[in-house]
Amino acid sequence: MAVPYPVVKQAVDEWDPLDLLTFCPEDEYDEESLRLAAAIDAWMRPATVARLIQDLFVHAFGPTVFTQSLEACAVVANRILRDTAAAAADS
What is the CATH number of the domain that holds 37? Predict the structure, then answer.
């Protein structure tokens, strides 16, 4: 089952890993959220999703700009998977 884009967008925007949303447009992370939504399946392990998140953000912003730990990415990964499961249960 695919992960819904709105679930990913909300999790990433609320995380705001680069503290950009206080002065950038609200669509600042939309490209990354779209890529994550396309890459993540709801059946994936949280550790795999965390690695995807970290790899994507390092690729997008570079390792000197994106310095969030794998553990921080795991928190977001767990939220995305939890919220996806909750959305599926509600439908």
Answer: 1.10.340
Integer Cα distance of 18 and 4 in angstroms = 23
Number of domains composing the chain: 1
Q: Distance between CA atoms of 90 and 58, rounded to whole angstroms?
A: 34
Give tens-digit pLDDT for 12-49: 999 999 999 999 999 999 999 999 999 999 999 999 99
pTM of the shown model: 0.94
Residue linked to tokens 């447009």: 25
| Percentage helix, strand, coil for the chain under 3-state DSSP, each rounded to 5 | 65, 0, 35
**3-state SS, residue 2:** strand
Domain that holds residue 48: 5-90
